Automatic annotation (TrEMBL):
Coiled-coil features, chain-numbered ranges: none
Taxonomic path: Bacteria, Pseudomonadati, Planctomycetota, Phycisphaerae, Phycisphaerales
Keywords, alphabetical: Glycosidase, Hydrolase, Protease
Annotated EC: 3.2.-.-
Gene: yraA_1
GO biological process terms on file: proteolysis
EC class (word): hydrolase
Family statement: Belongs to the peptidase C56 family.
Alphabetized GO MF terms: hydrolase activity, acting on glycosyl bonds; peptidase activity
Stretches assigned to the DJ-1/PfpI domain: 7-188
Protein name, as recorded: Cysteine protease YraA
Entry keyword Transcription regulation: no
Keyword Protease among UniProt keywords: yes
One Pfam family linked to the record: DJ-1_PfpI
Amino acid sequence: MSNSSNKILLITGDFGEDYEYIAPYTMLKALGFEVEVGCPSKLAGDTVASCVHDMNDKYQTVTEWEGHRINLTVTLDEINAEDYIALIVPGGRSCEYLRTYSKVRHIATHFIESNKPIAAICRGPQILLATGLMKGRRMTGNFVVQTEVELAGAEYVKLGHEGVVVDGNLVTAVEWHGMWMWLREFMKVLGIQVTL
């Protein structure tokens, strides 16, 4: 497949969650989708540093280590969101600053208003919430987004580490432990049926 009918956009940035990028990117590429990766203010051919998060009962928050270098394949500032059929937003601390870019909010707005499939995990919902268009939606994510979800007029569904919520075109998950379920539900929204 190589035309715009199978292009999926993945937005990430420095210290986006490593697993939440690698799993959807590799799985969807293996299924024949063209997955393009972009970050605002960076160019195709640049890289971003991912991070690996884990939980430790000794700490109030997650631990964090630098992960892989992620190759950017598109210049996000130049793309047309209409060329893509779906959007993936991995979590990690990158979401905190990615949502401040008007181009990122413009892209997210397109997918929300066009009712195209959207997969967001962990802190990824922060980018969707920054559009002001999530009122009335049901979603989940890392516990740190609960207040933002509720202030936006959306319903935060509190779930365990593997929790996933599907609300129409929107598939959200708590964190990387539940990526298998997040990706399974996202494939259903994409219309992909996997049979063994």
